[in-house]
Amino acid sequence: MTLRASVIITTHNEGASIRATLLGLAQDRAFREGWAEVVLVDDRSTDDTVAQALSVDLPALRLLHAAPDPASPLTTRQQALDLGFRAAASPIILTLDADSTLPRDWIAQMIAPIEAGQTQATAGPIGFAPLTSGVARWQCCDTAYYFLVSGLMARAGLGGGVFFGNFAFRADLYTRLGSFDAIGFALTEDLAFALALQRAGHRIGFAAGTARVDVRPCPSIPALVERSLRVTSGPPSALALVLTVWPLTLLGLAIATALGAGATVAAALLLRYLTGVMIVIRALGPRRSARLYVAALGYEPAVFGLAAAALLRRLARRGIAWGGKTYGQ
Q: Would you state the pLDDT for residue 314?
């Protein structure tokens, strides 16, 4: 049967999760019917990632070993993705994280708009599981909000972001963009790729919540701060401007109220806060639950605490860790 989709997964010490991810993929209709492949690019793992991957009975699995060039201006993750993208044998590429839990018929949902000619790429939502920690629930709110804003920005022609943990695109677009060599260094390689696609005039469709992929949350607040350093290091864009300015309206009103600006400003602060809560709840879509409603109430105030912690961490000048390497030391 003709291949229609190639799923690219890069790994760095993902022995604890890669087997479950591949077993989940094996249950997808695309693999049961034989029209998809997995290209697993192992990026210098020192644990049992490769052994765990090969223990899964998945005939459509191809294993590649990345050997990053230390002289390359790209991150090791970008180099691993480049290897996978170039090795894909299908007209559509999907990207997935190594710790993913997939919805039913995930591949078909993601590639259908591309095969129908409705769009050149499809961005899917990301969730976090289990939701047993406050960090996980905050991350669910954060990614849902980011996905909602990105979709609105993309539809307005201003450029939206995507998650490489749940993304599909026409394979030929990668070479037409000039690969990551032309896109350039980016710790937020998914955002840089998405913005390059949109600048070149290619459409990105945003999938419904039924296509949501769940990944592991950050295990602690310090880990969340480290992640925040990376995801806020992206290039200047209209999306970054919106994501920065909107929270600052809440902070500005809060400061003005604390300084005694009066009842009108205090009322505006309450209205602005409740509007933010409702936007997050709207963004959560079908995943709404009592615990996530509570998380939505504290989402924006926690943003400022995280931003302050990230600023202090950045001032320490210890660099940003990503994919087993530290950048900016």
A: 82
Amino acid at 75: T
Task: Say whether pTM exceeds 0.90.
Answer: yes
User: What tokens appear for 283 in the block?
Assistant: 């963004």
3-state secondary structure of 248: helix
Distance CA 288, CA 296 (A): 10
- Considering only CA atoms, which of 309, 299, 323, 105 is closest in space to residue 212? 105
Q: Does domain 5-124+162-217 have CATH number 3.90.550.10?
A: yes
Q: How far apart are CA 277 and CA 283, in angstroms?
A: 10
Give the Cα separation of 82 and 84 in Å (integer).
Answer: 5
Distance, CA of 160 to CA of 149 (rounded, Å): 7
3-state secondary structure of 195: helix
| Cβ-contact 155, 144 below 8 angstroms | no
Identify whether 301 is preceded by a cis peptide bond (ω within 30 of 0).
no
The pLDDT tens digits for 19-47 are 999 999 999 999 999 999 999 999 999 99
Phi-psi region at 100: left, alpha or beta (left = phi > 0; alpha = psi -120 to 50): beta
For residue 247, what pLDDT is reported? 95
Residue pair 144/152 in contact (Cβ under 8 Å)? The answer is: no
User: Among 41, 31, 47, 79, which residue's Cα sits nearest to residue 63?
Assistant: 41
Q: Give residue-wise pLDDT tens across range 53-87.
A: 999 999 999 999 999 998 999 999 999 999 999 99
Domain ranges of the chain: 5-124+162-217, 238-327
